[in-house]
Structures are given as C-alpha cells and as structure tokens.
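Re: that chain you flagged

S.,

Sorry for the slow reply, it's been a week of failed gels. I finally had a moment to sit down with the sequence you sent. For the record, here it is as I used it:
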Amino acid sequence: MEPEDEEERELLPGGPGGAGRSRPLPALCDPSRLAHRLVVLLLMCLLGFAISAMTILLPFRPRLSEWGTIIFSCFVCVGQVVFALGAIVNAFWLMEFGRFVFGIGGESLAVAQNTYAVSWFKGKELNLVFGLQLSMARVGSTVNMNLMGWVYSEIEASLGSAGHTTLGVTLMVGGITCVLSLICALALAYLDHRAERILHKEQGKTGEVIKLTDIKDFSLPLWLIFIICVCYYVVVFPFIGLGKDFFMEKFGFSSQAASAVNSVVYIISAPMSPIFGLLVDKTGKNIVWVLCAVATTLVSHMMLAFTMWNPWIAMCLLGLSYSLLACALWPMVAFVVPEHQLGTAYGFMQSIQNLGLAIISIIAGMILDTRGYLFLEVFFIACVSLSLLSVVLLYLVNRARDGNLNYSARQREEMKLSHTE
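Prediction finished late last night. Pasting the structure tokens below so you have them in one place:
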C-alpha cells in the first residue's frame, strides 16, 4: 500500500483495525485539527510578506489552484530579479518591466491568500485570519522601510561607491523575501492538496476557479462592498504617499518627524489588526464595525484638513480605523458570494481597488500641483464620505433582504448549525 493511501485510511472511519480511527494522525499532521490549520495560517501570512506591487488584471486569471499559487510566486521572484538587474545595468526600462512582472504575480498572490483563508478558516475565525494576514503584510512594509536603507549603506561601504550598482545589489538582497514567499506557496500547495485528498473536499467549492462571467451574478450588497473598498482605500494609500511633505509644509515638521508620523498608520495596524479581527469574530456585526471604521477615518481627515491639532492624533485614529476596516470588510465577501465564485469576487475586488488607487493617485497629484493640500484633503473627505454613504446603504439593503452581513457571532453560529443538520 502506498504511504499516502495509508495516511488517508488512518483518518477515515472504518480504517484499518476496525471501526473508527485506529491510528489518528498527530494534531500537526491532521488537516481537520486546529494545530494543523495554524501551520497553514502561518504560511499564508508569510506568503504575503514580500508583496507590495499592484496590477488590475486579476479577473482574467484562469485558476487559483495550487499550481497557480506557485506560478504567481515564481512571477514575483523573477520580477524582483529583473528589477534588480535593471538597476545593476542602469536600464530603467528593464526595471519597469521587472515591476510589471512582479505585479502580475504579486496581487494574484493576494487573491490566492484570500481564497486559502476562506477555504481553511471560513466561520468564526475568518475575521481574525484576515487581521493576521494584514498584520504580517504591514510588518513586511515596516521592515522594508526601516531595514533596506541600512542594507544599502552596508553594501555601499562594501563596494566603496554609491550609485545604480549598489541599488541593484540591495534590491537583489531584498529579493530573499520573495524566495520565502515561493517556499510558502510550495508548502501551502502541498498541504492544501493533502487536505483535499484526506478530507475529500469537493473540487472548485472553495473559489479556485475564476470566471469573468460570474460578475453578472454579483448581488447589490457585493457591489456596495466593492464601492466601500475602493472609496476607502483611495483616502489611505495615496495620502500616505504624499503625507510626508504635507506634514512638513502644514505643521512645520522636520523630515524625520514627518516620516515618523506618516508611517504610524502601518505601525499601528501591525499589532492592532489581529486584535480587531478577534473582536469582530467574537461580536459579529461586520457592517457596524465597518461603519465605525469609515466614520473614524472621516473624522481623521477632517482634523488634518481644518485644524492645527497635533497630527499624531489624527494619524493614530487613521491607523486604528484602517486596521478595523480590513478585518471587518474583506470577510464579508464570503458571506454574500457562493464558494465557487469566491476567486472571481476577491479577484475583482482587488482589481478595482488597484484601478481606483492608480486613478486617484494621478488625480491627487494633479490637485496637489494646482490647488494645494487643503483642496486635496477636501477631495479625500468627499471620497470617504461616499464610502460612508455606501456603508449606510449596505446596512439598509442587508436589513431589507434579511441578509447575514450584520449577524452577531451567535446568530452566525446558529445559522451554521442549522445548515449542518
């Protein structure tokens, strides 16, 4: 008998030695046990540790299977190597091509991360899982911002000169995290395939297949979730991209102080995301938490626009609200979309988010160049107000349709039990 067949029979009722499980696998090796799923969660978090590029082509990905995740990770590694080589040979066009290749794989991995999360943790743990994934991503961003400058300085001292060669070698060293992502993708593919074989998961029920035609079946609540996502994130990332100069110009901060206050959003989100995820898991009421997050973000931008209060207050509020929104918003997709459409839904959500970020970043730059920071903040306030209006509409639509988006944790558990009976 093959070893893997033996392993499968050990987990099945009526296995060798009589009825029931005669030789149950250790908890770390049993895909139905929490300890094993925690190993998968760690790999999922590390999978996104190196990802920061953007692409808008996700709905056209054919499949988010194990092989797809591995291929996307390879794109990330190859893209990073090409990007670094472009710097070494001083070819900017090659660097751009490298970032394009990196982007093809990078955001696709984010979609794979989401579908893995739903596949392994759909239920009362899902909000916490999304929070942990966001936390690890922000840790990666923080490490990148604080470590790569030191790495560049060390390589500069070693080579004896600065310039494009030193930059390229630094980028190549930074690519180690991309290799880590590939290793995690390989491990996740193996564990997912193994669990599918042992637990007899049905193919295609966890959102692996992406079909563009699924978009026509998306419900109104899902479209409102998309609008909330786009209108919210465009007031966070583009603002942080322009924030350093804003704090120096309006508040007279030094370059170092401006960088510190500008990065506090990511620093706060790293520890707070899993905490908020656990809170949402314990309480439910996802729409209420999203409403709180968007309203707090609106207050934060109004403080930055119309007051001279210490910006640390507003940025700390922004960091808290950003962490809360991610934990409460993204899992809602799994509540309104059939499992076989999850890949399409998350891919489309990621795509329009990135498209919105690309367009709004250009518009924000134009407003800043022609009108200044006050008008830019008014523009951001208008965007987050549209997000707030969409949350209110989502609440009303969900209530009118007796939807489950705002169920408490107890109501969701009762619904789950009723479906299994």
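What I noticed first: The longest helix spans residues 126-159.

Talk soon,
D.
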